[in-house]
Design a protein that fits this description.
The chain has 6 domains: 66 residues, Phosphorylase Kinase, domain 1; 273 residues, Rossmann fold; 192 residues, Dimethylsulfoxide Reductase, domain 2 (3-Layer(aba) Sandwich), CATH 3.40.228; 120 residues, Barwin-like endoglucanases, CATH 2.40.40; 119 residues, no CATH class; 66 residues, Arc Repressor Mutant, subunit A, CATH 1.10.10. The N and C termini lie far apart (56 Å). The C terminus is likely disordered. 58% of the residues are buried. The chain has 912 residues and is of the alpha/beta class. Helix 2 packs across helix 20, helix 3 runs parallel beside helix 15 and helix 8 runs parallel beside helix 14. Bound molecules: ligand MGD (2 copies), iron/sulfur cluster and molybdenum atom. The site of one ligand MGD has 30 residues, from helix 6, helix 13 and strand 21. It holds the Pfam family Fer2_BFD. InterPro entries: Asp_de-COase-like_dom_sf, BFD-like_2Fe2S-bd_dom, BFD-like_2Fe2S-bd_dom_sf, CT_Nitrate-R-NapA-like, MoPterin_dinucl-bd_dom, Mopterin_OxRdtase, Mopterin_OxRdtase_4Fe-4S_dom, Prok_molybdopt-oxidoreductase. Belongs to the prokaryotic molybdopterin-containing oxidoreductase family. NasA/NapA/NarB subfamily. Its cofactor is [4Fe-4S] cluster; Mo-bis(molybdopterin guanine dinucleotide).
Length: 912
Amino acid sequence: MTSLPPTANPQSSKRLLQTTCPYCGVGCGVDVVRQGAAGPQLSDLQGSREHPANFGRLCIKGTHLLETLGQDSRLLFPMVNGQRSDWQTAIQTVADKMRSILETDGPEAIAIYGSGQLLTEDYYVANKLMKGFIGSANIDTNSRLCMSSAVVAHKRAFGEDIVPCDYEDLEHTDLLVLVGSNAAWTHPVLFQRIERAKLQNPDMKVVVVDPRQTDSCTLADLHLPLAPGTDAVLYCGLLNYLSQHDGLDNAYIEQSVSGLEEAMHIASEWDLARVADVCKLPQSIVETFFRWFTQLPRVISFFSMGINQSTTGVDKGNAIINCHLASGKIAKTGSGPFSITGQPNAMGGREVGGLSTMLAAHMDIDNTEHQRIVRDFWQAPNLATKNGLKAVDTFQAAADGKIKCLWIMATNPVASMPNRELIEAALSRCEMVIVSDTAAQTDTLKFADVVFPATGWSEKNGTVTNSERRISRQRGLVPPSSEAKHDWQIISEVACALGFDEAFSYQHPVEIFREHCALTGTENGGSRALDLSPLQDLTEQQYDAMRPQQWPFSEVHRAGADRLFADGTFYTPTGKARMIAVTPALPTQATSADYPYVLNTGRVRDQWHTMTRTGNTARLLKHMDRPWLSVNSADAKTLGVENGDLLALNAACATDTTVILPVTIDDKQRKGDMFAPFHWSATWGSHCKVGALLNGANDPLSGQPELKHGAVKAKKADMASYGLVYGNAEYVGPVRESFSYWLACPTEVAHSASVADVKAPQAVLDSVFELLPKDTQWATRQSADAVSVVATRDDKLVLAVLISANALNLPSDWLDSLFTETALSAEQVSALLNQQPDDAFLLGKLVCSCFGVRENTIKQAIQDGCNSVEALGKNLKCGTNCGSCKTELAALLTAEAESSTDTESTPYERII
Ligand SMILES: Nc1nc2c(c(=O)[nH]1)N[C@H]1C(S)=C(S)[C@@H](COP(=O)(O)OP(=O)(O)OC[C@H]3O[C@@H](n4cnc5c(=O)[nH]c(N)nc54)[C@H](O)[C@@H]3O)O[C@H]1N2
Ligand SMILES: Nc1nc2c(c(=O)[nH]1)N[C@H]1C(S)=C(S)[C@@H](COP(=O)(O)OP(=O)(O)OC[C@H]3O[C@@H](n4cnc5c(=O)[nH]c(N)nc54)[C@H](O)[C@@H]3O)O[C@H]1N2
Ligand code: SF4
Ligand SMILES: [Mo]
């Protein structure tokens, strides 16, 4: 149905195709070469030079996209009740169930839980089906966990959910504040643009506001490691400081802003000393930041999950926006509050109205005029006229038996929602759980009654909108895998089976795109900034050839220019932007004597969310091959743990779940705070259910859960054996699961699991022996505190089980080199049995994945005189391909420089 772009000679010709990266909200353009027509091959993936988001750059995740496309990990056919099925049966099963629930319980008993990773066309059709035809607004998405606080903050301040900055602004600012964002890892290509901008303009200042000293701090002139959850205090203090230091733009306020007085009333209570006290920061640091914000003419606040994922995330967003409005640092080149979107199409989802608290096309669900416009446009028989359930409430309602049919699309909520025990109970209770996914194995699929295989990146065809409102094409480069169908097709087929054929007879995504664009323009007349009507008549050919387009389009934007709000008017009833009176509040999941540690969760550089794609390539696991828990050294001492020890975490909401993670002692982490990545899930290990430790507390205005502030207790895990199960997948799988604790850490060539057990090594051996492959030769070594088993077939390693009473840290490269040997020597077998790698493998952790350069090699080069990232690149090539490790190289340079000087630098302030 989705036609491939035509080729001159389909049999043999090579053709350069352009698409968009499916990961983060930067929205980088990607060039790929396709060769051959039947079973076309993709190769030579690069950043598109002419794409305005990335100008040729890609981060490491984008660079390795082609390696994630293997069919082994894909869902390839529909399933019903755990059995392979066919499309007709699967679609009919869903439609029958929905119809019967509609008859007995009404539309409120059905819900869709979607994703900012759906394309705009998929999203539009899902929203239309739910809100216009099934007749409830119970369609929410993972964007609720991601952007919803910013959405509400925008609505409150501007009257419409609008991001008023462009990427180019990052290159024309005097002060860039990264607040609650680790862009070096999460928006790497933008971070590289910022890096360049700072090189071009050394006067440009960068401030990072984050309780942790992240990699993003490598670029910072100032880092504010504030107490977690205290950002609203900081920004109230800034507003107060602005008013006391001649920082208000009175003319702008007079013309364009309301609510100053009320906001000021609360903010005036926050003087410097009080801010410093509550944020637990030295006053001088806070003052420096406030002074820069006040005095530098152009300022951008680049904010992300450290702000949004909070029970007061909306207020925090508004506290930031307040300062921009009051100082007039908004809607001008190089100035503004810049909420940065996480997912590739979180913005497109907001445009179609894909949240339970919106209608469609930036129109409001409770506005009768908007209802009329949408009802007429869709010819909707059953338009929803009130808010539906937000994500957390949807799952609660399912757990309570009120939602009976839940369709999950392009998201893995069992792993990514907070309060996992409740989510599992909810899905178990639901009468029908439908899951549309691309991956064959996810934590959520285990709960599905009906499984729809969806096409994934490289097969899908449609549009996405990035953080700067730029619409780009994701193109179908190859045909769908096996029986997979496009999400919009699957939704349309269910809609047709429900009897809504006329409204869902789409044959090509362009038809959906045109309809979406037309709706944004319907009865708009300048009342809504989102007006894509200039694109509503695109032909299929024009759609296929569409270049990246940023809205607003000057031909329909009421200000006539593409700079939003440049005329000083906003989309509120008065036309003025609103400052909001913000009363700072502390996090809801407060620590206590029983749960004394703050659990902060977030992302790592090379993994995407629940790892269903990035986890498929060992290249992306090289940077960090396992989850960990960052612990301050003082806390580590109190807890009696050292690097690599296993720490067990519990939270009040997780009655049956213990999370166990290896400790990384890290003083970039505040005392009392701990940080864990949330990527690894039950698919990856026995004790990785990090989401279970967060209780689902959420912002009453946005419904966005507090994912950066859990309250946990920690205790060294009581284990008597530690070790490694390594070798062929078929053997590693069953053996690892016989241990009380296992964690998959696959390498480029083999399967591997880090394991631990409450039993002593000798006792462990008994249970392992039963599982050893019978047709292999075994060599064993047993001592008082260690056991090793090495299984070989024709002298080739197939399985090694290496267990010790003490923590065992064996470099995976060493095992990989043995695994790829055609025949192991007696010495090699003996080294394995002795659990002792040779020196050559002890060169430290991999920093540059592209060129395989390790930490100790880099440290040596620095000691030998390489004193810049460029010099390291010249000597070792590290950082010269995708550039993702450049921040780490810079950090190594700084660390080496610091360790070689006697002067003490303050932990907070580093003026470059
Ligand atoms: N590599 C990678 N990149 C990604 C993603 C991915 O999975 N992997 N996902 C994408 C998505 S969907 C999103 S939403 C973005 C998220 O992008 P980011 O928001 O940059 O990522 P996070 O790591 O979730 O959180 C950012 C920072 O918030 C800090 N933080 C915690 N509590 C507080 C606080 O109280 N105040 C402040 N100021 N900061 C705090 C954390 O320490 C963390 O460093 O990343 C996108 N990009
Ligand atoms: N503790 C903690 N939890 C968090 C966060 C945090 O910082 N801390 N961050 C939150 C945020 S911001 C986000 S955005 C969420 C992300 O959480 P999720 O959305 O649950 O994470 P993903 O792994 O991206 O899930 C996407 C799923 O869709 C599938 N998929 C990929 N492409 C397609 C497609 O085209 N069609 C279909 N049908 N399926 C597809 C993938 O295989 C995968 O199973 O996690 C949230 N959860
Ligand atoms: S920064 Fe990386 S993950 Fe984000 S869109 Fe660009 S290449 Fe993809
Ligand atoms: Mo996100």
